[in-house]
Each structure stands twice: as C-alpha cells, then as structure tokens.
Design a protein that fits this description.
The structure is a homodimer. With about 160 residues, the first copy, chain A, is mainly beta. Chain A has a single domain (about 10-155), classed as Calycin beta-barrel core domain (Lipocalin, Beta Barrel), CATH 2.40.128.20. Helix content of chain A is about 0%, strand content about 65%. Chain A has no helices and 10 strands. Chain A has strands at about 20-30, 30-45, 50-55, 65-75, 80-85, 90-100, 100-110, 120-130, 130-140, 145-155. Chain A has a 10-stranded antiparallel β-barrel. In chain A, strand 1 and strand 2 (about 30-45) form a beta hairpin. The interface of A and B includes residues 47, 51, 68, 82 and 89 of A.
C-alpha cells in the first residue's frame, strides 16, 4: 500500500510512525494497581501532523482506556500533542524532541462538566530499537503530580 | 461483521452511529468562502461513548481539516463532545439531545502555544431520514460568534 509522502515538517517525529502493541502497568494513591494490554498507532496523511489513536484492554480482554489526537511538530526540536479522552478530558502538551524521545508537559487540561478533576500530566515517550516506552505522571483528584502509567510496546 | 452490543447509555445518541459522506461550505469574515467534501464516522466499542472521526477535503481531493474525539451521553437527554484538532485546538461541548438533534455549545476551548485564537464554537447536528446536517458557529481571531460551516451528509 502506498500513501502520501511524509511532510518535511514530520522528520523530527517520524520515529513514532507505525502501530505499536505491548503492555503496561498503572498505579495511583486512589486506586488499586493494575496491568493492561495496549495498542497505539501514529499515522500521517501527507500533512504536517501525526494522527494518534490509543486503546488499552484489561488482561481479560475487556476495553479500558482510549484516547485520540494529533502530534504537531514545532520547528525541528519540539512538538505539541493534543488529545481527547472519552472520560471527558482534553490535554494539550508541549515539549522538546530530543533524538527519539518526546518530553511533554500539559499546558492545558480541559474538563467536561461530568469529568473527574485532572490538573496536569507529564508524558515521556522514547523509541529505541523497535520498542516504544512511555511513562505518564498525573496530578488529579487532589494528588500532586506523580507516577500513573508505564508501558513498553513493540512496532508490529 | 458483529461487534459488541450497544451500551444502554448510548440509546439517546445511537442515531449518530455510522459513516457519513457529503459536502459542505464554509465562510468567515477573515477568509474566502470555500466548499469541501467530508466524511464523518461515529462508532462504538460496547462502552458508554461514541468514537468520532472527521475529515474534509478540498474539491481537488487534497486534505483540509480533520478532528477526532468522543461523544458522551449525560443521562437520557444531554451529551458532551470532546474533540482534538490537528490545528492544536481542543473543544469540550455540552448540550441537550432533542430527539435526533444535538445542540452543543463549547464549555472549554484549549489552545496549544502555536494555535490560532479560537474562543468558542456552537454546533448543531441533526439526523433525519438517513441525512446528517450540521451547522457550526465560531468566535475566533477577534470576531464574535457567527456562521462558519454547514454541511449535509448521507449515511453510507
């Protein structure tokens, strides 16, 4: 299958492209620790952004979280990430691209009237040797910014 | 193809489900009027929300806008819509579901550091006889809330 050529502006984040599968674990002071399976895809349509789609499942196969959005390169060494979540939360992130590592901090979190109180998140995504590892920290429900999720995925 | 059963909470917004294709026109005081082709899909995975994906193309086939997110029913007669856009903008909407019409006003607009200044939008989506019509008003770049987009699509 052939698609449109990669937009020049996407060179700095092209390392994310593809479909990734793996598993992760989560924890937070207000919940029980848990494990999950995950699939992430980053695709492009010839425009200067990546389309991002993520889904996770419990070990028994039932769907857990999902989120979707876009990665926007800013110059050659920074990026923004805009995300919508079915929990009624939007996140806008910005941060540097350091080689094949994306270091993001939320600059805006939007909450639907019925959403839980998330204040900020920080996400680090690293790709190395066909493996994508991310770590997500979160400040929510009165808790300070701290570890929430970590996962390791392989490009399929 | 069989999928998971529809979640009970989705009954009020089930009229949106499917893939829709059609065309629309846009205008704003700061730009030239334009026309576009569009495809929208609303899907579900057995959870109490719809996944929303939208793309538009210029008459010559080149990609224009896109956005993605989720529809969250709130009780039997209201809904929230959370959206991410590759322009670096997130929107959170809330409003009533009146039969097969969804009347949404933005309650939050998030802007990435490099995004243009959108203040608010209002979206009305109506489904009738296999046809989906929406109208979008927008307050942006110093202009008051006013007509921006209107489109008519058919379920395929």
């Amino acid at each position: 299958m052939t698609g449109p050529d990669l937009h020049d502006d996407l060179r700095s984040v092209a390392f994310l492209l593809g479909t990734w599968r793996g598993s992760g674990h989560g924890d937070y002071p207000t919940i029980e620790g848990f494990t999950y399976d995950e699939e992430i895809s980053f695709t492009h349509a010839g425009k200067p952004f990546l389309f991002y789609l993520q889904r996770t499942w419990a070990p028994d196969g039932s769907p857990l979280h999902s989120e979707t959005g876009y990665v926007r390169p800013v110059g050659a060494d920074a990026a923004e990430l805009v995300i919508a979540q079915p929990t009624g939360i939007t996140e806008i992130h910005a941060g540097p691209v350091e080689g094949t590592t994306l270091r993001l901090r939320s600059v805006d979190v939007g909450l639907a009237p019925t959403a839980v109180d998330v204040r900020s998140t920080a996400r680090t995504i690293t790709v190395s040797g066909g493996e994508l590892v991310y770590r997500l920290e979160m400040a929510a429900v009165g808790q300070p910014l701290q570890f929430h999720l970590e996962a390791k995925l392989h490009r399929i």
